[in-house]
Design brief:
Elements (H helix, E strand, L loop, with lengths): L3 E5 L5 E5 L22 E5 L4 E4 L1 H18 L5 E10 L2 E5 L4 E5 L20 E10 L4 E5 L11 H4 L5 E10 L2 E7 L2 E6 L21 E10 L4 E6 H19 L2 H7 L2 H17 L1
Parallel strand pairs: 12-14
Antiparallel strand pairs: 1-2, 3-4, 5-6, 5-8, 6-7, 8-9, 10-11, 10-13, 11-12, 13-14
Helix pairs in contact: 3-5
Length: 278
């Protein structure tokens, strides 16, 4: 009814419980309470009106559970909980009568844009306790810490010199981030996208969501950084390096017949341009 629930007491008498006094947190789906039995405190009793509340009862139960958990829980513990509420900044998880916050940044190794795309109310999750602050009644959880860390295998899965196909996840002023696998992004620095007048290489413009082949230049596990270069750029540089090596390794007689290094590079570019046209 308007403002709250009509409650039928034992014996058939009618009473009223305001929405704000039915639970510790406001329940959006009020139909969940219909037909269920609860214990109430009487906070107002007149000739015609009886007003009830569950708040104090629930608060006492919470403090008892909190006291029990306080003696048994430690930061770093892994335990199961139930998602009770989805918010833009994360999700609240119940671990046995006491709730804590699972921040959006701790849900997945991937970047989580929308919490409801990953979690739902009533879902059972296994979380790690990140922080316990009993004085301020705050518990923080991590879901991703309970999952394998993709960076543990990054150097093996994306070793320097290897080629991979990824998806551009974000464009920044200093370059483009490319997702190589779950929770692992690499960076193509802007300097590797600017082109080269001397070789005639055109600048590259990337867009979010674009699929691109890249080469891994370096892997820094400690700082969770992978440096990438577009595969096309890398192969051109490798071809130029091969020409330079042949030029340096040739004997003087061969060098005279081969011409200057500039002429060799020019011939290499013209040859490549001819293949591209075909």
């Amino acid at each position: 009814m308007k403002g709250g629930f009509e409650i039928t007491l034992s014996g058939g008498a009618r009473a009223f419980c305001p929405f704000s006094h039915m639970g510790m947190r406001r329940e959006e789906n009020k139909e969940n309470y219909i037909g269920r039995s609860f214990t109430f405190d009487i906070i107002e009793c007149g000739d015609r009106n009886v007003v009830l509340s569950r708040k104090n009862i629930l608060e006492k139960e919470k403090q008892e559970r909190k006291k029990s958990l306080k003696a048994s829980l430690s930061e770093g513990d892994k335990l199961k909980g139930t998602v009770t509420s989805i918010q833009n900044f994360g999700a609240f998880v119940d671990i046995g009568g006491v709730e804590g916050l699972l921040p959006v940044s701790e849900i997945s190794w991937n970047r989580t844009e929308k919490v409801s795309d990953v979690l739902s109310s009533g879902q059972t999750v296994e979380v790690i306790i990140k922080k316990l602050d009993w004085d301020n009644d705050r518990i923080s959880f991590s879901l991703k810490d309970a999952l394998p860390n993709p960076w543990d295998e990054a150097e093996r899965n994306w070793s320097p010199g290897s080629y991979h196909t990824g998806k551009v996840s974000r464009i920044a002023p200093f370059g483009a981030f490319v997702t190589l696998g779950e929770g692992v992004d690499g960076l193509i620095h802007s300097s590797r996208l600017n082109g080269d007048k001397e070789t005639g290489r055109e600048p590259q413009t990337l867009k979010t969501g674009q699929t691109i082949e890249v080469k891994v230049e370096s892997v820094d596990i400690a700082n969770k950084r992978i440096s990438l270069v577009p595969a096309e750029v890398s192969r051109e540089e490798e071809a130029d390096a091969a020409v330079l090596k042949n030029y340096r390794d040739a004997d003087p007689a061969e060098m005279r017949s081969m011409g200057t290094l500039g002429e060799m590079l020019k011939a290499q570019l013209e040859k490549k341009a001819g293949r591209d046209k075909k």
